[in-house]
């Protein structure tokens, strides 16, 4: 019996390597004869770097960068074992979790720190970069990121615009002449799990701004500022389209990646699956176990468990999903092809208790599933 354990993180409880380790330990206890392979996963958001490092054994690169409010913070990115691919996540330098709730300011927060990380990865000489979009505190259309990479964003006096989304209101021109030279040499692809455009009722400000501290007036102002960014950029890059799916990801960084950095957008879980070699691990397996902190009907919209399921289905391998919490319409996952869905908690518990007990609950559940699956396989 060969079992592949490929979960996402349990947010605010366990990262994906820890989830995979707990499930794998329990499975080995329940079926000592099984070969268990741990492949931590992510969808491009927070935890992507740790998932890739946990699955590939790559190298962690650390440096100090500005956080969304310009304060110094330690951030890391991953260099894969081939030495040619870097994985950078927005959440590491521009993450909402880096800003205390009372200080969140969608108009002021900048993505500059993510640009510093990306520049260092380019300086490492890599030939490809996976940029995980998700969990950002900024709504600046990627302006700070671009500035850290040498792109000048100027007002009508030729001066650099202020940081953050509010600064975009003063944008008059874009100067690409000083852009990091290696941007033209690398394959830059952004891992994205949303399809929102840059502006409008489904745009970066309207949909994600409130969780970043924006009130209704802030949302309207930031949406106007992002429209100004799109209008100015389109004068320099005629094919820059603020309506493309994913342009509004990470406060508009998705738009900047395509329109100013020469990159492209792709489904986050698919990119991570490629980076960790999930297809090769699943090929020839007898069972795949995946999951994340919460599973419900919305998990079908580009989340990790369904991405893992699609890989398993291509190879005819059954899939079990586990979660800390099961939400509405979770049976849609079974309709989509998951063999069975299980909650890790043994019964009704508080959220705090479920998070605290997650390692032992996952281990216990995996032990029971392994014993049951082994018995069924032998019958």
Automatic annotation (TrEMBL):
GO BP annotations listed: organic acid phosphorylation
InterPro entries per the UniProt record, alphabetical: Glyc_kinase_flavodox-like_fold, Glycerate_kinase, Glycerate_kinase_RE-like, Glycerate_kinase_sf
Domain of life: Bacteria
The keyword Ubl conjugation is annotated on this UniProt entry: no
SUPFAM superfamilies: Glycerate kinase I (SSF110738)
Keywords: Kinase, Transferase
GO molecular function: glycerate kinase activity
Family classification: Belongs to the glycerate kinase type-1 family.
NCBIfam families according to UniProt: glycerate kinase
Protein name: Glycerate kinase
Gene source species: Janibacter melonis
